[in-house]
Each structure stands twice: as C-alpha cells, then as structure tokens.
C-alpha cells in the first residue's frame, strides 16, 4: 500500500502548530501605559531630608541626575502617613521586565536622597497583569514564552474561577427603589434587623403579580442617613412601578405602625435612560446591559486583574469573575459602585456644614436646625438646581437634575494633593456640563450660595461660590481619607459612571487552594480514564486499537489548541465536556472497527473490508455527531455560566473528533492495510460468524 508521505507531513505540521499554540501564548503586542510606582520609606520622607528642603524637590533633583537624556518620572506624591508615596511614571516600558527595570531605577535614584526607600509590597500585584517580553511580534499581536506554574511548563489555557480561585459576582441592574425614613436611626444592628424582618415578611406575603417577592430591603450606610432604608425591586414597567409604590406604602405603614415616611421613589426606565445616553433603535434594555458590561470591563481592566471573565446574562444581569482576587469587599467597591458624581445647588432654606466627627462628610440642617438626611438633601438640591437652570434658559421643564454629573466629566481625571496636603481629584468638564456649570456659578457668585458635591449618596463638601467658574475644570479636595481612595474614585470616573445602579445578588469567593486541588483531581481523573480506555481499545481491537489511541492523542492536541485559539475559559464543567467529547471520539472509532469486523467476513480482501467499513459507518457517525452538536448548541444558547462552558467544550470536541476519527484514523489504518492482508488476527479479535444462505430451487425442479 502507499505510504502517503504528503498526508503524514501535513498531519505532522498540524500537530506541531497546535503544540505551538498550546504552549506559546498568542496575545496583543505589549503597549506602554502610565503606571503608579508605590514606594515606602522606613520613616517619614520629611525626616529623611535636610532642614529647609522638601521631599518633592529632593526627589525631582534625584530624578534629573539619574535619568539624563530620558523621560523623567513624575513628582513624588507623599501619602497621608508620610512614609509611603507614589510616582506617576508616563514611560515605564511595555513589558513586565522593562517596567520592573524602570521602577528599580526610580527607587535607586530616590535612595540617594532617602535612605532605606524601597518598592511597596503592592508593587508585585501592580505588575502581575503586565505582559512578559514576547519572543517575537506579528503586527499588533505577539508570541510569548511558555507559562510556568510551580516550576513546570503549563498550557496557555485560561482557567476558570473554580480551577484557580478568586471572586465571583452576579450583578443585577436595578429597576426601581423605594426609600423610607424613620423618625430616628435604629439604636443597634439587632433593631435594624427587626425592622428589616418585618419588611421582608411583608414582601414575602405580597401578591405575586406585584413582583415584590424575592426583593430585599437594606438600610443606608451613608452618615446622616442611618434612619433611612430602601426597598429595591425589578419593576418591569411604569405601571408595575406605580402598583409597587402603592402596595409598599401600605405594607410599610402597617408593618411599622406608620413610623416610616416614604421618600422619593425612583424608576430607572430603560427607554428614557437609553435615549439620554444616545442609544439608537428600540432595544434599550439590551443596549443598557451592553453599556454596563463595557464599563465593568473597563474598571476591571484598570484593576490589573489577569484574565477576568465578564458576561452579560440577559435581560438584566452580569456575571463578573475575577481570578486571583481574594478580597471580595474591594471587588464589590470597585466593580459595583455606581460612581455618580453630582454637583448641585443648595436651596435657600437648607444649610450645609462640615461633619464635626468626619472631615470627609457634610451634614445638612433645615431652617429649624434639624438634621436632614443626605438622600433627602440631594432631592431638595436637585429640585433647586432644576428650577435655577429653567430660569437661566438651560432647562425646558425645570425637572430635578444636577448642574454637573459624571457623564459631563472628561475621562482624564487625576488624583493628587490640593493645598494643605489634602487628597483630591482634578477633573475637566465637557459638553453641556461645562456650559451649565459656568452659567450657574455666574448667577450665584458672591451671594453666599453653596454648591454641594455628592459622590453617589454622600456629600463630601459644599464650597461657597465666590466667583464664576468658567474654565471648565475643577477639583474636589474633600471626601477622601487617603490619596489611594482618591485614585480609586478617579479610576471609576475615568471608566464612566454606570448608566443605572446595580445590586450584588451573589458574592462568592473560591480559595486558590481549593481551585488548585480541583484542577489536580480533574486532570488525574482524566488521565486515569484515558489510560483505562487505551488498554480497553488495545485488548478488544488489537493493532487498530493502538492506532485509535494514537489518533486520540492527536485529537487531544488539536482540541486543546482550538480551545486556546477561541480564548475560552476552562472550568470544571468544561473538563467534563472535554472528556465527554473524548468518549464520543472513541465511540466513532468503535463504530468503524465493529463494522470492519463484519466486512472482513464478507469481503475478499482487507483493503475492501476497510473501505466498506468507513463508507458504511459514515451515516451512523454523522447522525450521532449532528445530534450531539444540536444538543450542545441548545445548551450554549439557553445556558449560563458553567453550562455554556460545558456546551462549548463539547461542541468543539465533537467537531474535531469528526475530523480525527475519519481523517486521522483512516490515514493510520490505510498505512497498515498490507499488514491486514497478511495477518488478519492483528486487525481484530474474534470475528462474527459468516452469514450463509441455504440454496433454493425453482418450483418445478427436482431435488
């Protein structure tokens, strides 16, 4: 028989290319970006310099000497504790090695002025998400060295949360909120839970058509609003929102004996929100979900998390998986915070004053000196702002609104220190926001009016307007205890405020140890299963069984390469789908080999039997693969999370098994056809009995 060198060469190159894809990751070419280099000194920087000199000036002098002819690092910014600080570097390099070398040089330069200064412990996490030095570039893409784990080379497969640990969040876009205020804040946690328990019982007992079952109530955490709780629902339209409002007012009044006063309920209408954001078409809900996913992805990317997974779950949920993140509270703060900055105008009958117990908070008092909750004050301020903008011809109906919101801020917000060494953020306005800000400040300048600045529901400062602010830029120097907190909020502003509030409906943490243990056990189970199957194939099908095992090895390489190229994330259900596809591939070979046994009995030569076996088994093979593909497609389309992972690995595996079982196994079998002609015992175990037909005679013949 022909040896088919061309086919073997093609198969060899295919397997070689697949191994390259598996072990040499292909990704975007590294690009430089601005980085914050954190440093820490053994004692306050001011104590490490000579009398009469400032740490910032000394650091600048050190950088000028160390970086001659190069782009200088930014100024040294010292944190509130005096011992830690950051340097904003605009030219750190484009790979992890280059960034580390640049950071080491910065620290060495600082060391000439500040003895004992070194990189902060958080630096390693900062650079962990950066690219390594690529082996070579392919335009906008690059090929990177093999990945290492515990000293061993591992495939470039993205592992899911259940295989490496991290944080899993399920977020839901809020559709409606109903605030209620108590005469006084509950005295302790037990009192709050008692009140919430009554509300939850009422929600559970409500009419199912109202959509209140399964919703929850939470107390406000903003200082000054501890007496306020909120019921959050998923009202599907304005009509249901009105029904919920009426039912909740009655239920809360009954449950708390009339002690709670309803606040301004809000319905986050997807259509009006979409129109305000400039969405086209009619699928506002889908576009709102897509915009939310984009903003969440931007926030997560700036966190430096390696290989996050952010998936939309229509109609209103988003799954966020952050591998390697072990602090769920920080993840919720960065990912789930709405990040709404609002600058409003304070009404004449309301007074703002600093909180004596918290310099980063502002309290509001009415004309009688009574404390006004922050949320209620925000409502009154937005109403006053709407009326003022209508008077200035900048609003048609005078509806409640802020002067400036986060959407009016350019994505260039930075963090640093204002006068007095207070952490601050510096922002620039764009579009109508700049025009409205200039008009309102011009109208109220010099009249003793204040413009409170709210970050979400917390008022962090309320400066007096001394003169018109027409430059389109500003700073917020209150509300941040540390410069790191200011940087976090600047990151959120630059990423964009979420188009609608979101609630965390699931928060789950998987430890790295548990994830690694699951991975090891899954791989071991797969290897043991493959070994048992390999022995079975050889025992039952002899030499064809050996070749089927070789084809199975090719199948595994191609399957893993396809998985890497698709950028899919491997999870525990994905491993199950991978092993199921492996079994389907073996089943295809078994169909061919069983048919081969039958054909060897009735065909005159082994070559004829082999040809007939592949031809006649094809329809059964095709039917089984198509039905499996249909099932996996349905699972992928209607499933979520782990189910999608299972369906994807199963579908990819089935398609590749169709190729390997027919093409690769056929190639191997035809290569040994001459051996089958000489020794049929090597080609199969016990052959089935030959089908014989008794001789027949015509009706009138003699026996």
Question: What topology does this entry show?
Answer:
Layout: H1 5-23, E1 26-28, E2 35-40, H2 55-66, E3 76-78, E4 84-89, H3 96-111, E5 118-119, H4 123-128, E6 136-138, E7 141-143, E8 147-149, E9 152-154, E10 158-159, H5 161-164, E11 166-173, E12 176-181, H6 189-204, E13 216-219, E14 228-233, H7 238-255, E15 261-262, E16 266-267, H8 270-276, H9 284-303, E17 309-313, E18 317-323, H10 328-336, E19 341-343, E20 351-355, E21 358-365, E22 371-372, H11 374-391, E23 404-405, E24 414-417, E25 423-428, H12 432-444, E26 453-455, E27 458-461, E28 473-476, H13 483-495, E29 502-510, H14 512-565, E30 569-570, H15 572-602, H16 606-638, H17 642-671, H18 673-678
Parallel strand pairs: 10-30
Antiparallel strand pairs: 1-7, 2-4, 2-5, 3-4, 6-7, 8-9, 11-18, 11-29, 12-14, 12-15, 12-16, 13-14, 17-18, 19-23, 19-26, 20-21, 21-22, 24-25, 25-28, 26-27
Structural write-up:
By secondary structure, the protein is an alpha+beta fold. It has four domains: 5-25 and 512-682, Multidrug efflux transporter AcrB transmembrane fold; 27-138, Alpha-Beta Plaits (2-Layer Sandwich); 173-273, Alpha-Beta Plaits, CATH 3.30.70.100; 341-505, Gyrase A, domain 2. The protein is built from 18 helices and 30 strands. Strands 12, 13, 14, 15 and 16 form a five-stranded antiparallel beta sheet that branches. A four-stranded antiparallel beta sheet has the order 3-4-2-5. Strand 20 and strand 21 (358-365) form a beta hairpin. The longest helix is centred in the C-terminal third of the chain and has 54 residues, at 512-565. Mean pLDDT is 81; it is low at 692-703.
């Amino acid at each position: 028989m022909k040896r088919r060198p061309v086919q073997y060469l093609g198969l060899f190159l295919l397997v070689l290319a697949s191994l390259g894809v598996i072990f040499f990751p292909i990704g975007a070419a590294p690009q430089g970006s601005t980085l914050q280099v954190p440093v820490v000194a053994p004692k306050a920087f001011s104590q490490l310099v000579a009398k009469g000199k400032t740490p910032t000036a000394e650091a600048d002098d050190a950088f000028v000497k160390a970086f001659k002819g190069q782009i200088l690092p930014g100024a040294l910014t010292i944190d509130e504790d005096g011992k830690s600080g950051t340097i904003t570097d605009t030219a750190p390099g484009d790979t992890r090695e280059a960034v580390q070398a640049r950071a080491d040089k910065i620290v060495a330069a600082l060391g000439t002025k500040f003895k004992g200064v070194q990189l902060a412990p958080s630096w390693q996490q900062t650079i962990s998400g950066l690219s390594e030095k690529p082996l070579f570039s392919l335009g906008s893409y690059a090929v990177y060295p093999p990945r290492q784990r515990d000293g061993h080379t591992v495939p470039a497969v993205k592992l899911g949360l259940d295989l490496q640990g991290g944080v899993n969040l399920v977020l839901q876009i809020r559709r409606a909120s109903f605030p209620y205020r108590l005469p006084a804040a509950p005295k302790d946690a037990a009192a709050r839970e008692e009140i919430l328990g009554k509300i939850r019982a009422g929600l559970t007992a409500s009419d199912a058509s109202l959509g209140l079952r399964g919703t929850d109530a939470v107390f406000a955490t903003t200082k000054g609003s501890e007496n306020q709780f909120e019921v959050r629902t998923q009202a599907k339209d304005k009509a249901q929102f009105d029904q919920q409002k009426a039912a909740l007012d009655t239920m809360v009044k009954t449950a708390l004996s009339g002690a709670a006063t309803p606040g301004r309920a809000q319905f986050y209408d997807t259509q009006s929100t979409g129109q305000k954001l400039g969405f086209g078409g009619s699928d506002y809900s889908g576009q709102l979900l897509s915009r939310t996913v984009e903003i969440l992805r931007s926030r997560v990317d700036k966190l430096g998390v390696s290989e996050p997974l952010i998936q939309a779950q229509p109609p209103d949920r988003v799954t966020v998986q952050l591998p390697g993140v072990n602090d769920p509270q920080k993840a919720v703060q960065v990912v789930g915070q709405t990040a709404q900055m609002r600058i409003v105008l304070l009404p004449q009958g309301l007074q703002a004053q600093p909180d004596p117990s918290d310099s980063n908070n502002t309290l509001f008092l009415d004309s009688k000196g009574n404390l006004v909750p922050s949320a209620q004050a925000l409502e009154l301020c937005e109403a006053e702002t709407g009326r003022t903008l209508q008077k200035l011809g900048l609003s048609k109906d005078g509806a409640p609104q802020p002067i400036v919101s986060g959407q009016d801020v350019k994505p260039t917000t930075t963090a640093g220190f204002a006068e007095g060494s207070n952490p601050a953020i510096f922002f620039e306005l764009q579009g109508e926001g700049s025009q409205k800000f200039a008009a309102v400040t011009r109208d109220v300048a010099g009249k003793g009016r204040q413009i409170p600045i709210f970050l979400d529901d917390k008022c962090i400062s309320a400066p007096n307007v001394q003169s018109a602010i027409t430059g389109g830029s500003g700073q917020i120097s209150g509300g941040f205890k540390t410069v790191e907190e200011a940087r976090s909020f600047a990151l959120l502003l630059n990423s964009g405020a979420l188009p609608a509030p979101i609630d965390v409906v699931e928060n789950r943490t998987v430890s790295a140890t548990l994830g690694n243990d699951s991975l090891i056990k899954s791989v071991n189970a797969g290897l043991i299963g493959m070994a048992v199957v390999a022995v079975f194939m050889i025992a039952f099908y002899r030499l064809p069984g050996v070749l089927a095992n070789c084809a199975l090895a090719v199948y595994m390489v191609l399957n893993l390469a396809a998985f890497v190229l698709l950028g899919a994330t491997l999870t525990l259900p994905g491993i199950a789908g991978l092993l199921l596809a492996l079994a389907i591939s073996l089943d295809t070979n078994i169909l061919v080999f069983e048919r081969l046994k039958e054909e060897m009995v009735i065909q005159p030569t082994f070559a004829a039997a082999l040809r007939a076996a592949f031809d006649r088994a094809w329809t059964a093979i095709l039917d089984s693969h198509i039905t499996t593909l249909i099932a996996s497609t349905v699972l992928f389309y209607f499933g979520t999370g782990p189910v999608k992972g299972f369906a994807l690995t199963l579908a990819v595996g089935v398609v590749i098994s169709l190729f390997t079982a027919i093409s690769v196994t056929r190639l191997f079998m035809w290569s040994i056809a001459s051996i089958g002609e000489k020794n049929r015992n090597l080609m199969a175990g016990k052959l089935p009995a030959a089908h014989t037909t008794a001789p027949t005679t015509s009706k009138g013949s003699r026996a």
